[in-house]
Amino acid sequence: MKKYFFGTLFTLAVLTANAQTQKWAIGFKVGEPNAVSIRKYGDRNGFDLSFGTYTGLFKSKTTYKSSNDKLGGVGVMFNGTYLWYVPFFNERMMAYAGLGAQLNSRRYYPDRSSDIHTNNISLGPSATAGLEFFFAQKPASLFIEGGGYLELLPKIFYFNPNLSIGLRHNF
């Protein structure tokens, strides 16, 4: 038992050496949504800006304004989120959560046989929570995050869940 305990302690000490967050990061995430993100780190908070597109991963084509095309709920998104985080393992890993706002632009086709489409600008709050792992001696981090977006205008209470994994370069 002592060997297991000291082996685990030694492994954690080695893994956590020389890891730290930087002041800025740029990266990408894949999932729902696919996006490029820029993050500014503070002491125990941060701000994340993301620009990307929804893929329709968690929603079917008929869930947004009864669109009859294959890309009914898919659109371009811009999200700003204020984050609070807690570092673990000598700042090698951090858990974070935050609240923000999201602006979307969607195009949908009410009639599949027609080329007539409607552009829709939407707005609402968003929430994010995740884990970020910083590689030792490298300026990169790997993260997984989830959350959601609740559209308030124009389709009230339309909820889109988010789940992404990604990679960031910290500088």
Protein model, in words:
- 8% of the residues lie in helices and 57% in strands.
- By secondary structure, the chain is mainly beta.
- It has one domain (2-170): Porin, CATH 2.40.160.20.
- An eight-stranded antiparallel beta barrel has the order 1-2-3-4-5-6-7-8.
- Strand 1 (24-32) and strand 2 (34-41) form a beta hairpin.
- The radius of gyration is 20 Å and the shape is elongated.
Pick out its properties.
mainly beta, Porin, eight-stranded antiparallel barrel, 171 residues, elongated
Secondary structure topology:
Blueprint: H1 2-15, E1 24-32, E2 34-41, E3 45-53, E4 75-88, E5 93-108, E6 118-134, E7 140-151, E8 158-170
Antiparallel strand pairs: 1-2, 1-8, 2-3, 3-4, 4-5, 5-6, 6-7, 7-8
* The CATH class: Mainly Beta
- Strand line-up of the largest beta sheet: 1-2-3-4-5-6-7-8
What is the oligomer described by this structure? single chain
The proportion of residues in beta strands is: over 45%
Q: Please describe the biggest sheet, giving its number of strands, its sense, and whether it closes into a barrel.
A: 8 strands, antiparallel, barrel
Rg, alpha carbons: 20 Å
CATH topology: Porin
Q: What separation lies between the terminal Cα atoms?
A: 41 Å
- Give the total of beta strands: 8
Q: What is the CATH architecture term?
A: Beta Barrel
In the predicted model, the low-confidence regions spanning at least 5 consecutive residues are 4-20
Secondary structure: helix percent: under 10%
Order of helices and strands: HEEEEEEEE
Count of helical stretches:
1
- Output the structural class: mainly beta
Using the alpha-carbon principal axes, give the shape: elongated
